[in-house]
Amino acid sequence: MNKMLVGKVTDIDLLGSRTFRVNDTDIALFRLSDGEVLAVENKCPHKGGALSEGMVCGSKVHCPLHDWRIDLHSGAVQEPDTGCVPTFNVEIDPDNGSIYVTI
Amino acid sequence: MTATRKKLVLVGNGMAGVWAIEHLLKLAPEAYEITIFGSEPHPNYNRIMLSSVLAGGANMDEIIINDLEWYRSHNITLYIGQTVTAIDTDKRVIYSDKGIETEYDELILATGSHPFMLPLPGADKKGVIAFRDIKDCEIMQETAKSYRKAVVIGGGLLGLEAARGLLHLGMEVSVVHINEYIMERQLDQPASIMLRKELEDQGMKFLLNKQSEAILGQKRVKSLLFADGSTVEADLIVMAVGIKPNIKLAQKSGITINRGIVVNDYMETNIPGISAVGECAEHRGIAYGLVAPLYEQGAVLAKRLAGVVTEGYAGSVTSTKLKVSGVNVFSAGQFTEPENSRALRFQDEIDGVYKKLVIQNDKLIGAVLFGDTNDGAQLFSMIKKGENIKGREKELLLGISADAFSAGQGNRLEEMADDEIICGCNGVSKGRIAEAIQSEGCTSVGQIKACTKASASCGGCKPLVEGLLQLYAGDAVVTVKEGICGCTPLGRDEIVSEIKRMELKTVKEVMNVLEWNVEEGCSKCRPSLNYYLGMLWPEEYVDEKESRFTNERYHANIQKDGTYSVVPRIYGGVTSPAALKKIAEVAEKFDVPMVKFTGGQRIDLLGVKKEDLPKMWEELDMPSGHAYGKTLRTVKTCVGSTFCRFGTQDAIGMGIRLEKEFERLTAPAKVKLAVSGCPRNCAEATIKDFGVVAIDGGWELHIGGNGGVHVRATDLLCVVKTDDEVVEWASAFLQYYRESAGWNERTAAWVERVGVDSVKKALENREDRLALQERIQKTLSLTTDPWKQIVNEPELRKNFEPITQPETV
Ligand SMILES: Cc1cc2nc3c(=O)[nH]c(=O)nc-3n(C[C@H](O)[C@H](O)[C@H](O)COP(=O)(O)OP(=O)(O)OC[C@H]3O[C@@H](n4cnc5c(N)ncnc54)[C@H](O)[C@@H]3O)c2cc1C
Ligand code: SF4
Ligand code: FES
Questions:
Q1: ipTM of the modeled complex
Q2: Do B526 and A55 touch (CB under 8 A)?
Q3: What are phi and psi of B163, to 5 degrees?
Q4: pTM of the shown model
Q5: Which of B599, B572, B577 is closest to B677 using CA atoms?
Q6: Running DSSP on this structure, what letter comes out for residue B256?
């Protein structure tokens, strides 16, 4: 388990996403409209679509390739499709907005 | 634990066997250690969808029912690409062709059928195949790439679906049938003739009353010879003349066989510990060739193996539907009129509808429907139930009214056993749907579909699903008005008029005020609202990039591997040596994997990494071609009077003028234009959204064409004299389309929906046209080039790059 500083909250647009890479894994950070920041592996369980490029609706992201919906809290693919994306714990420093992700 | 598990081996990794295993795992997940053998090199897939794959309705990998992960997660040992060749019924061991030996306590044979191949001379030539599995499908797709002529032998269900698929693949297709009437095993003569006419209209040719005699050719098939001496040319012959149960293994092993492997009501063969299920099994003299019976058989088998009480399998009444788009055919039960039966018929040659009901002793015993098959599922359920329909016959024939039906339907559905299959395509039982309604809270057909996949494929079972919803959800049923998506019951027009009336100015506001039922909507309604708001309030509305699709957000087309493509604008398809050099240099500098000319006369740089996009745009220093958005794409031109000896007008000049006029325009869907310099129409203007064709002394203006999935030729809007008039009409047309079409609705679909005449009428007054033109000009004047904007604004540009390199703390 590694805790990493990956950037600042303001680096991510609201309802937007930024990515970073750790040991060959692409991780996508999302910032929801209420400000919450969540991290999941940037790879759709369907055909590997980059989730960071998808549309964020509430706490779900729609994969850009075939529109699967993934819950960003649990990583669970929404019905009727099935599957799961690994999620990562995110902490935000309330003072300076630094984002820490535990990998 | 494992020591106590019995060993279960399944031979045949197809629909019937795996369905039974799935059922068994639900009833007794811990009871068996399971091993599955399958000859085909694939996990279990939905064979019936092969027809859709051929016809372009589904992808090969969308038809997988259980992927490899499913086998793994259920601890199933799977041997694919292995055929079981022998069974030692005394020692209870099976042997595969690759040398695997496996012991069993229980053995299930689910070996399916073989396609029947006519033993014609030459049947072993290259290009002669059946239609049964993925491999056959792949051969057809491959062949269609380099050959033109296909012949399908057999005018039954399977043959016609194969023929339809081959037509879709661009081949010329003839169907050879031995009888005078196609699908004679499912249809009576009037329905058969109507079907043939319909398919002929789709481009299929028929050779009826033809007995095939020999297949001619060298190595590869060249033609098919008939008994009457005639021949037909063929590069590919698909035999679809029937199937025979695959009983070889059972026969060798001393299991009793007849046409199929003989089983009792519990799917047991004569040898202890060995069962059979699916197309290879023969139950009470019948070997079925459809999936609905095998779902029922599988459920019985699973129950027996799980030690759950079952009444056994009592045989199935079957129904068929032809899965050919644009043709509705349904047939069930005894449709030829047996003695002592009476029939009711209804034939309407104007709308192409035919219906026939066969009645015996006041009970419905068979039905044929052509053209309008809405009542199919209901009629089928009446046939299965054998209920008395005295006095209601005519009503049933003319269409099942909701009232006529509610009386009988409630209790029919109520009495139906829980494991009876409602959705034949996806094997969804009544019990599963009841569960979705009662414990998972589904209150609409849409939700049930999302939850269980029932009614998601052919849709034939929708009335039954609705009935179940009534039955179990009662008052809670939300009769959902079909809104623009699942998040709202409101349609496009209601939403747009409410936005106008209440002057709503952001997506969030619209969702709040109009009571969206999903927080922040979905990938359908968000972009729609973003478009409507931008169209209605061009000056005030701030476009929400987060409500746009990937392509429109990154101003490039995302490709399947996550890279993007870059297409600079090339007005009217006219470029210059300097511009070409620039493009070439940039392509080299960024190692662009592919440089390709598009169909719209410009250059596509494919395979670009996202982080390179802004850098490339910066170096190109050309406007975006908007090849990715719901906007004006290209204006295709021919050389026109500038060079062509036939040209009557300057097509290039007109094309460039139109492209400059409308570039960056947002629209409900993509918009393509073209200008041809004379009626020879080399720029293919009559399949564009707005097509301009020069005539002597003027221009013809055409609208609503499309060259995509549904090719549609344009309708003539009007003829004008001057270049300015062309621009005036184009402006008015495009703005009218922007203001009245639904998001994602191409002009072709929109023109069909509202009618050409209504479009003509809306544009006929010059005053109206000028008002529309003014509005479109206002909108256009507010647009900027997105590439330049991103290049120059770090706040936008950052999104193309990874966030800072992470550091461990
Ligand atoms: C193109 C097409 C369209 C169809 N459309 C419809 C439709 O619309 N509606 C409908 O109801 N039905 C339809 N059917 C029929 C339906 O697909 C079959 O009834 C169903 O697939 C039969 O299932 P099964 O498990 O008995 O056989 P299969 O699905 O054929 O499975 C048997 C499997 O066992 C394997 N096997 C055989 N012998 C061995 C061995 N010794 N060792 C290992 N493996 C072995 C075979 O390779 C095969 O994969 C269609 C069929 C086709 C081909
Ligand atoms: S459409 Fe007419 S003017 Fe244009 S290239 Fe063809 S023949 Fe020449
Ligand atoms: S890759 Fe994500 S939905 Fe297909």
A1: 0.91
A2: yes
A3: -65, -40
A4: 0.56
A5: B572
A6: -
